[in-house]
Specification:
By secondary structure, this protein is α+β, with helices and mostly antiparallel strands. The chain has 13 helices and 18 strands. It has a six-stranded antiparallel β-sheet. Strands 8-7-11-10-9 form a five-stranded antiparallel β-sheet. A five-stranded mixed β-sheet has the order 13-15-16-18-17, with helices on one face. Helix 6 runs parallel beside helix 7. 24% of the residues are buried.
């Protein structure tokens, strides 16, 4: 009983274990770095970005608040009676033109002096609410309407206006402004208006160097000023809540309150907010990718150092399994594996020697078996008896028996001759003709055997007693009817060093089972010698003489006949 090798599970193979090991070796550090980043670096980076935005916002709010305080302080000097306001009261009550002209120069000088010494202050003038007219206004002031100025916050003494276009006709930039009443005993309708210098206002807006847009909202959350009116128009309401960061309309909103109640809001687009984080993620991805590439290169090097030599050794064992004992196995350039390969090569050499010795023994046994088969096919021919038959036939004048005995005697001399196993095509054809003459007497039906041989093939060497068994098979198994034809064709293949022999009949053909029985070794199932022994003899002779250089085959179609073909290497007689 043959033992079958049970294949090991694939999970236990060295290849799969190496793949698993390399995968863990490469991915474990990368996963550890990623977990460390997500658990520690990412929160710190996010906090740093938020702190930077909040600090810039505080600086912006402080600058804005300081500017409004500067406007408040500056307008106080114009509003109280013990300062410029006292001179304004005198100017309003005086009827003396000279005195009034003098006061005008003094008040104008004071206004200019305060504007020059305070860089925050830009355009400044008095406004009479009762007459809706400007007092001491410079020529560049364009039309002034108090009710059109955008109020940001308002107290009993002063009103703050959110950023608006400057009232200076030569300045088109936004400014902050305030207006407050002048403390005059006899006139409660005069106010002082002051706005920031447009340069100073621009510096406030540029305090946040990131150039992010800003909002100003009142204490109820209503937007009173917006640098991003499309997403947050003035008048809209924001739900800022108690957190420092709110997300809305694709922006992150960071807000900072002031002591006056309104808030400054910095708008950070989501893409901008995540830009630095994404940059860090990109750097991390590059590092992880480079680590992965390096890991794969190292894994490949280890793979080639371990698995490739083992694969070469395995291929060597497979070559031995297929009978290939001569194909060399390349060196692995690793001392331990090369030492193993040297031992393996010695083993292959020993196996090759044993196989060659066994082949010699088999060839000798095949020669003996061929001779045995040869004498088994012709066991009853006796030369002396045939000579006696020929003498009696001639004495009695029976030429047909004389001719028959002569043909049989010649055939026996050829088949049982001592010239060796090889003959020529011409001699084999001559022996076939003697055999056909004998068979015409034996069979009671007419048949025709034609031999077509090219002249150049007649001297080619051929194993002795090849054609007769093949023609006999056609006669014996071909079921030839009336006018049966057997055609033997011998010719050389063009451009090749081989020639072919075909034996074709027009008999009934045979089924595949009958063809398989004919091809089997030894006797047929009915015990008759020759049911398969002829073809078996031919096959054994070809294997013994030519090995793999010769080819043998049979084709048969029911109702059309049978064809036996041989392909033999070209050899001259005596080689």
């Amino acid at each position: 009983m043959n033992k079958q090798t049970v294949p090991l599970p694939s999970s236990r193979s060295l290849k799969n274990r190496l793949v698993l090991f390399f995968t863990i070796m490469v991915l474990a550090p990368l996963v550890s770095i990623l977990i460390l980043y997500l658990s520690n670096v990412y929160p710190l980076l996010n906090q740093r970005i938020e702190n930077e935005i909040q600090n810039n916002l505080k600086q912006f709010a402080t600058s804005l608040q300081g500017t409004l305080e500067s406007l408040n302080y500056a307008t106080q000097r114009f509003a109280f009676a013990d300062s410029v306001g006292s001179k304004l009261g005198e100017w309003l009550t005086s009827d003396d033109l000279y005195e009034k002209s003098k006061l005008t120069r003094e008040i104008t000088s004071e206004l200019n002096l305060i504007s020059i010494t305070n860089p925050v202050i830009g355009l400044t003038f008095y406004y009479d609410e009762s007459s809706e007219s400007l007092v001491f206004a410079m020529p560049q002031v364009r039309e002034f309407r108090l009710d059109e100025l955008p109020v940001m916050s308002k107290t009993s003494s002063i009103t703050y206006f959110r950023p608006h276009r400057s009232l200076d006709r030569f300045n088109h930039r936004n400014v902050l402004s305030v207006i407050r009443r002048v403390d005059l005993p006899d006139n409660k309708h005069v106010m002082i208006y002051a706005e920031t210098s447009y340069n100073f206002m621009q510096n406030i807006l540029e305090t946040d160097r990131t150039n992010r847009p800003h909002l100003i909202v009142d204490d109820t959350g209503v937007v009173i000023y917006s640098e991003e009116e499309k997403a947050f128009p003035p008048g809209s309401r924001l739900a800022l809540g108690g957190t420092k960061k709110v997300r809305s309309a694709g922006y992150y909103l960071f807000h900072e309150p002031t002591y006056t109640g309104w808030r400054v809001v910095s708008l950070v687009p989501s893409g901008t907010y995540h830009k630095e984080i994404n940059r860090w993620l990109l750097q991390l991805g590059v590092i992880l990718l480079l680590s992965l590439v390096v890991g794969l290169i190292l894994a490949r090097v280890i793979w080639r150092m371990v698995y490739d030599p083992l694969r070469r050794i395995n291929n060597g064992f497979q070559l031995v399994g297929t009978g290939d004992l001569s194909t060399p196995i390349a060196s692995t350039r690793i001392v331990e594996f090369d030492q193993l390969l040297r031992h393996f090569e010695k083993m292959r050499l020993r196996i090759r020697q044993l196989l060659e010795d066994n082949a010699i023994k088999e060839r000798r046994r095949a020669d003996f078996e061929t001779e045995k088969l040869l004498y088994q096919i012709n066991p009853h021919f006796i030369h002396n008896t045939l000579d006696t038959i020929r003498w009696l036939a001639r004495v009695k004048g029976n030429h047909e028996i004389d001719e028959l005995a002569s043909s049989l005697n010649k055939l026996l001399y050829y088949n049982l001759g001592k010239k060796g196993h090889m003959s020529t095509v011409a001699e084999e054809i001559e022996a076939l003709q003697d055999y056909i003459a004998l068979q015409r007497v034996r069979y009671d039906f007419e048949f025709q055997v034609s031999v077509l041989a090219e002249p150049e093939v007649l001297q080619f060497a051929i194993p002795r007693f090849i054609l007769q068994p093949l023609v006999e098979n056609s006669l014996y198994h071909g079921n030839l009817g009336e006018n049966g034809v057997i055609t033997v064709t011998i010719g050389r293949l063009s451009g090749e060093s081989v020639f072919t022999i075909t034996v074709r009949d027009n008999g009934a053909g045979m089924t595949q089972p009958k063809l398989d029985m004919l091809m089997q070794d030894g006797l047929g199932t009915d015990g008759k010698i020759g049911l398969g022994i002829g073809t078996y003899y031919v096959r054994k002779v070809l294997e013994n003489q030519f090995g793999q250089s010769a080819d043998f085959g049979i084709e048969s179609v029911e109702g059309e006949g049978t064809c036996v073909y041989l392909k033999l290497p070209i050899r001259q007689e005596g080689t």
